[in-house]
Amino acid sequence: MNIARILYPVKVLGPGDRIGLWLCGCSRKCNGCSNPELWAKRPEYEITPDEVFSLIQKISSSHQVDGFTISGGEPMDQPEDLASLLSLIKPISEDTLVYTGYRLEELQARDDQATKIALNSIAVLIDGPYIEEQNDGSLLRGSSNQKIHVLNTKYDKQYQRYMAETQNRIQNFTTADGIVSVGIHHPTF
Questions:
Q1: How far is Cα 173 from Cα 78, in angstroms, rounded to an integer?
Q2: Residue pLDDT tens, the chain, 189 long
Q3: What pairing do the DSSP bridges indicate for beta strands 147-150 and 170-175?
Q4: What is the 3-state secondary structure of the chain?
Q5: What angle, rounded to 10 degrees, do the helices at 79-89 and 49-60 form?
Q6: Domain map of the chain by residue range?
Q7: Which CATH architecture has domain 3-183?
Q8: Strands 96-99 and 170-175, how do they pair?
Q9: What pTM did the predictor assign?
């Protein structure tokens, strides 16, 4: 799998202290995307799901992990590796929020087992292409056309409460490459 970033604690893309993963590779390439640097896969970012899980275990062994947020790039362009990773991290937390530019109906119509397995392991899916003209500050969504699907009903109340009590915020992480700004940004950012 191709992963550019693993950040902790992400506090702005779902409830609690989360591990955020940003995958590389995107066939969608939405105009105005906040992460165009993640459109192309990069050989130096190639890692197996088991290796990613090993890194996650190091974080979770000494820190509270309330959930995972997976973005990109386009996570659903790597369905086999995504499904494998989701099964590995499930014992740490089943609260996995995944961003995708595909619509849920498109993913459900796919004829591959990996996508079906991935969808069965995702707690919350935020779907739909990013449309810059519809970036109106909608909570957890880059643009208002995107929909929030709670696929695991165990998390209905938690996300209803989160949506009622939270507003979009930005969180900055210092990395070896500079500063990574995480969250839902306004179109003028």
A1: 25
A2: 999 999 999 999 999 999 999 999 999 988 888 888 989 999 999 999 999 999 999 999 999 999 999 999 999 999 999 999 999 999 999 999 999 999 999 999 999 999 999 999 999 999 999 999 999 989 999 999 999 999 999 999 999 999 999 999 999 999 888 899 999 887 766
A3: unpaired
A4: CEEEEEEEEECCCCCCCEEEEEECCCCCCCCCCCCHHHCCCCHHHECCHHHHHHHHHHHHCCCCCCEEEEEECCHHHCHHHHHHHHHHHCCCCCCEEEECCCCHHHHHHCCCHHHHHHHHHCCEEEECCCCHHHCCCCCCCCCCCCEEEECCHHHHHHHHHHHHHCCCCEEEEEECCEEEEEECCCCCC
A5: 30
A6: 3-183
A7: 3-Layer(aba) Sandwich (3.40)
A8: unpaired
A9: 0.95
The encoded tokens of residue 49 equal 């799901």
**Number of residues assigned to the chain:** 189
